[in-house]
Amino acid sequence: MVLLKSIPKVDKFVAKNEFKELSFSLVSTISKKVLQDLRESILNNEVDSIDENELIKKVIKEYQNITKPSLQKVINATGVIVHTNLGRSLINEEAFLKAKDVATSYNNLEYDLEKGKRGERYAHISKVICEALNCEDVLIVNNNASAVFLILNTFAKRKEVVVSRGELVEIGGSFRVPDVMASSGAKLKEIGTTNKTHLRDYQNAICEQTSMLMKVHKSNYSIEGFSSEVDFEDIVNVAKENNIIDYYDMGSGHLIDLPYGLNESEPSVKKIMEYNPSLLSFSGDKLLGSVQAGIIVGKKELIAKLKKNQLLRMLRVDKITLAILEENVKSILLGDIDKIPTLKMLFTEISKLKENASILKNSIDDICECEIKNTQTVIGGGTTPNKKIPTVALSIKFKNYKPNKIEKLLRAKNIVGRIENEQFLLDFRTIQEDEIKLIENSIREILDK
Ligand SMILES: *Cc1c(COP(=O)(O)O)cnc(C)c1O
Fold this sequence. Notes:
Number of domains: 3
Helix content: 25-40%
CATH architecture of the largest domain: 3-Layer(aba) Sandwich
Number of strands: 17
Bound molecules: pyridoxal-5'-phosphate
Radius of gyration: 28 Å
CATH class of the largest domain: Alpha Beta
Distance between the termini: 43 Å
Shape: globular
Largest sheet: 7 strands, mixed
CATH superfamily of the largest domain: Type I PLP-dependent aspartate aminotransferase-like (Major domain)
């Protein structure tokens, strides 16, 4: 029988030597909880004896649990370049440091240094994007989902938006075109069928209530076989004839031509701009390779209306986002692809991937069995549905371990690989050069045990 009075007193307990280096206030709150739990367990007759060392350990464990960084660096060895679960796009250090200068001091975010009065938050980025895309104006919001929402809410509230049934997609993270449209206040007018939509379907759908013809990138799926969709160029022309807005949610827009013939199915934003569209929107952190943002480009008078929507105040982006985006778009404009990790990874030659794979192989083949493989990967992030690109991976075998066990051991070291044909692979399409040594060290640590 354990008596309640044998529970340590809080003030004495928190003064223990073991807590000396820790934050007093955090130790106090955790200790109160731990001692309260103990009290309840005693009342429930679940305690045979009180071990104070165990209680101290419990508090320290909880303390560490709360204070250790939850968001951590991970090595992406999956080969999926735009990996939404792993943070989508890497930011290069130079752009990050430029943003640091802006963010750690006062800045001209909304201040016109020439005129000495209030300036425009989006002016910094519009110069460089308008130059890169030959568009009239630009607006940046929190992400592309916000862009879609803002555009629909501004121009199509209580009005109809015409969308092909083949494009009513759901994108990862529960973004569903019909649902987003409903919450924005726009009325969806579905046309065509799942596999086929014709130009006449758009023409026939237009009525008094129509505000917009919208095209949505199919993102993570594709329709093969007996199918057809209408080119955005034709949609733009029909919209113009009828004096309504055309809008293309491009999902992952990209500013430069993609390798491996991907451009045929995925034209760049620049190419789409040639059709003279009303509005386009795309993500900042998919194939553009920058920060999380939604980029809206198009006609000046339409962007001006978006800027007047109260919603923009809730969807607007921070100076850090604008600073990094400005830097990244500038690099793309100058053809400095190496400064955009997403694009650099996409364009890396197979021979270079092989070279990197060999470096790791040679560094660990004394301790485990590994083999360089030519295989394929996907870009990911709903960018180029069903399209594979070539890559090089190192298959790793530890004696007596199944692939899923190896996967787990490496994942415990924040290295995320993939299993293919019952082999554990580290894909060099997404492994950074300075990570090769880290992988070697981790594998040695695992096998030394
Ligand atoms: C990814 C995607 C979105 C959402 O973009 P986020 O930047 O993730 O908010 C919207 N539409 C399409 C077609 C997409 O592919």
